[in-house]
Amino acid sequence: MPPLSAHLSRIRGPLTAWWEHADVEFPCLQITLPLPASASPPTTDDLERQWFDVDYVITHALHGLAHTRYLGIAAPTHCPSLGSAAMAGVLGARMHYVDGRTIWPQPSGRSLAQMLEVELDPANRYWRTLLALTERSVAVSADRHWVAPFPLEGPGDCLEGVLGAIELFIAMGEQPEQVDLALAHFTQLWLAAFDQLSALIERAGNPGGIGWAGIWAPGPTFPLQEDFSYNISPAMFRRFVMPWLSRLVDHVAYPMFHLDGTTVHLPALLELSRLRAIQWVPGPGQETVARWYDLIRTILAHGKSVQVFCRADEVDELVAAVGPRGLLIGVTDCSSDQAEALVERYHAY
After folding, report:
1. Which among 95, 115, 181, 326 is most buried, taking Cβ atoms within 10 Å?
2. Residue 102 has what pLDDT?
3. CA-to-CA distance for 325 and 25, rounded, in angstroms?
4. What is the mean pLDDT of residues 255-267?
5. Using 50, 70 and 90 to split pLDDT, how confident is the model at 101?
């Protein structure tokens, strides 16, 4: 696998321009292809090992990185994870591991008032394991791969996981001030976790930063999110999400927002002047990118860059429709021949 310095010479210019929403001739393409492997690490059906055995997890992660071809702005990235909802487990939710890919948080049984007592507990199994995974990955990452902080979700997502969805939504209507206090506290915990992970990752000495979206930045970055907001109105989003989101945007040097499945909160997000980019992920069955041209144009027109996903055969029409400035395309369903042709056409060397 080429050293990170080789990857950096390929991605630094295009991605710096993307984060700055600079005028460019070509969009960014993010393409990964599997490389053949003569042998694979041993696998197991034991969920305990799949999730919590640090040696097992790191061995499989490094094998995957070594057997992936990175094209365009794609770069070798390891994001240690215990599932997308792991931060809720760190903060006290009971976690249900369904299989090797799926995890669901279950409410802790604690009250809304008790949410103010939640802390980052060094003895918490999920926090302890995530720190161990991150530290082990960092130890072998110098000039080899970037390490991303695990998916921290958002304070609201974490509060929903620890308190319970029904309990949170009822409290938002009946005890809004108490919810404000809980969200403020969870925001502080989020910031503390992000800073601790960032300090750990910086030990590798690799230039810049990267988040779980796999997009390198010249400094610290993170794809912020609040997936629970799919179930709340624009007014409630402004009331309960925007105050803390503004704080996180101000805290992260290169912030982006993971917008998943709903567009009703986009006007509020576009008001965040320091938010540099939005990752748009449509809901199941809505993936055809042509139906989202107007949405993409709106984001770009507000001076924010955008990451979208489309099939290889949709790329040309997408670029023609919205232009290259601020556009980063995660290319899916892509053969090796298609990838080579796209790289040549869009100078994504």
Report:
1. 326
2. 87
3. 7
4. 96
5. confident
CB 279 within 8 A of CB 257: yes
The Cα 31–Cα 71 span in angstroms is: 5
Amino acid, res. 41: P
In the structure encoding, which two tokens stand for residue 136, read together?
Answer: 């082990």
DSSP designation for 337: H
Mean pLDDT of the chain: 96
CA dist 200 and 147 (Å) reads 10
Question: Residue with structure tokens 């984060």?
Answer: 19
Place of tokens 């993170």: 222
pLDDT tens figures, 106-163: 999 999 999 999 999 999 999 999 999 999 999 999 999 999 999 999 999 999 999 9
Q: How many Å apart are CA 272 and CA 225, to the nearest integer?
A: 14
Q: Rounded to 5 degrees, what are φ and ψ at 246?
A: -60, -40
Work out the angle at residue 236's Cα, subtended by the Cα atoms of residues 170 and 19, and round it to the nearest 5 degrees.
130
Contacts of 200 (CB under 8 A, 6+ apart): 131, 134, 135, 138
Give the contacts of 103 (CB within 8 A, at least 6 positions apart).
82, 83, 84, 85, 86, 95, 96, 97
Structure tokens at 280: 């748009």
**Residue environment code for 216-246, b if the CB has 16+ CB neighbours within 10 A, otherwise e:** bbeebbbbbbbbbbeebeeebbeebbbebbe
DSSP assignments along 148-173, one per residue:
-------HHHHHHHHH-HHHHHHHHH
Q: Please say whether the beta carbons of 137 and 200 come within 8 A.
A: no
| Domains along the sequence of the chain with CATH | 4-345 (3.20.20.210)
Reference 276, options 348, 331, 346, 209; nearest CA is 209
